[in-house]
Amino acid sequence: MSKERYIEAKQKWAEKQKARGVTARAEPSGDRLPPGQKLTTGFPVLDLGVQPDIPPEQWSLKLDGLVAQPTSLSWGQFHALPQVDDVSDFHCVTTWSKYDCRWGGVAFTTLYELVQPAPEAQFVYFTSFDGYSTNVPLTACLDDDVLVATSFDGAPVSREHGGPARVIIPKLYAWKGAKFVSGITFLAEDKLGFWEVRGYSNTADPWTEDRYA
Ligand SMILES: Nc1nc2c(c(=O)[nH]1)N[C@H]1C(S)=C(S)[C@@H](COP(=O)(O)O)O[C@H]1N2
Ligand SMILES: [Mo]
Fold first, then answer.
1. What is the pLDDT of residues 182-211, one digit of tens each?
2. Any idea which architecture 3-40+56-208 has in CATH?
């Protein structure tokens, strides 16, 4: 299927789900599996039909917007920052969840401190090498489990899962985590990302099944 047709199909699916009333509907659920989710032990791949091939030596991460110190980090500079490991659960809006994903990389808070955003910067806009984008309120990014990850289960993040570096925001549906991440922009006003303009929820809370806007 072509990239355009694939995106169109996914967008139609979001519209249909919305018409069926599958929007925010808080329900009691277990402690760990959010409502409407099924546990998987595999690791499905979701992308736009493109998996860009970025050799680490050509990779860079641009940090800009309302910040005192805009910068672009090379692979070496990124790895010179403090590295952390975090184990978290992964919830995809298409109803699969995966437990105990061990991600390694740089905490979002480390990048935040590095560039020193202005107080007006309350929103974050992520861009990717495949043309993807997504947006998240700054407060959600400052949780200590939010990472720009370069390793999964002790090995480099594979190309299909968004290597060389991808964003992980465990408390939100996984589309809020940009694979193949290329840029992080700090903004005063919210700006909708790729799926957010196509009917996906802006807030994306798995615990209230906040799937479609
Ligand atoms: N750059 C980019 N990031 C992306 C996507 C994408 O298509 N491109 N898909 C999102 C969606 S919808 C999900 S569920 C997760 C899937 O990550 P996975 O392929 O490692 O399971 O990545 C998110 N990040
Ligand atoms: Mo997804």
1. 999 999 999 999 999 999 999 999 999 999
2. Alpha-Beta Complex (3.90)
